Amino acid sequence: MARITSEILAAIAPQTAKTLRDRFLDALNSALPVYAIDSELEVAAFLTTACFESDHFKTLREYGKGKGRAYGKPDKITGLVYYGRGIFQNTWKKGYQDFTDYVAENWDSIRKRAGAKEAPNFVENPELLATVFWAVEAACWYWQKNHLAKYADKGLDGFFGLQGLVNRGSATKRALDYPERLQIYKAARSVLPDDFVLDSAVAPAAIPSEKLEPEKPTVDQGGPPEIEQPPTNQGGIEQTVITGGDTTAVSTTVKNQQDVNEPVVQENPGLYNDIGFKQTIINDAKKLLPANLGFQTIPDAVGQINGMPDWAKMILVKLAWIALVVTIGWALYRVISWLVFTWKENERVKLTALINTDVNRKNIEFVEPNKPEAQKA
Known about the structure:
Blueprint: H1 6-12, H2 18-22, H3 25-34, H4 40-53, H5 93-105, H6 107-114, H7 132-145, H8 149-152, H9 156-168, H10 178-191, H11 252-256, H12 276-286, H13 297-303, H14 310-357, H15 359-362, H16 373-376
Helix pairs in contact: 1-10, 3-7, 4-10, 13-14
């Protein structure tokens, strides 16, 4: 039996300060065995997903707080914003409500580990998902709810589908920044021994002792958005900088992630290995699908430009879309023109062949109209 240690997290997220990584140890060692996430393959896949979605364990809140996205607007009833929180970045009000219902139904088994008297309501107090204990608990719930273990147990063969489900809502879609996810996964697999089994006999974790103030309802008054600030360089913690009202996050992993609480498409994915020439061709072809063409790749690419104001980015995205539409329209025009020309040419050939094979038509003498008889002779 084994535990998730500081050395394991350091191998997965070496660029993150030890104090930020190690705050998750108790919660991970306590919660994962409860949800049967205990084998080497499952722990590696879980830690990889958590590492990537939390910007290498640096934040429990989505950078930019959903600015510019549908879920980033204040709810009409509560006035709160249900942007991504937790190590799996749980998103949307429905996701918060579903987790609230789950905790309430299973409170007898969760209460001892949580160290609380009453089951919390995450819709009324969404900031609880940005605490270590509930961030890990919500990730385990999402893992179990969507049967991600069946993908994790297949190792590298299932990793593509697992990341697609978490990030894109479908096991057949390539997760954003997949090469980086794969690199983290390989690091996790290399540091965990093949016979790794997470020990369930560990001390229960508890909610951090700091008092949380309920999040105040927000009113969108325009102007620069409030940006989640990553830790500054104090006490040995690494520094990450986000400037002004620029919604471009330092880590594109959190900014670009798809909402994990969107309905998951459970389907036979025909899982892929991201290895070899054949799979490279397949993955490249996926980028040309209509779901990815323009409406997602262009905003993501523009969003990664640092130092450009939001209004300029919006104009640049629109210009790129116009150029894309014009290019597609020109290509369609060329294809249609070629088809029409080919059809006319085929008709001309058919008519010529008909004339040459018809004796009566072949011997027809064509006379120019209104030609004087003298000139005829």
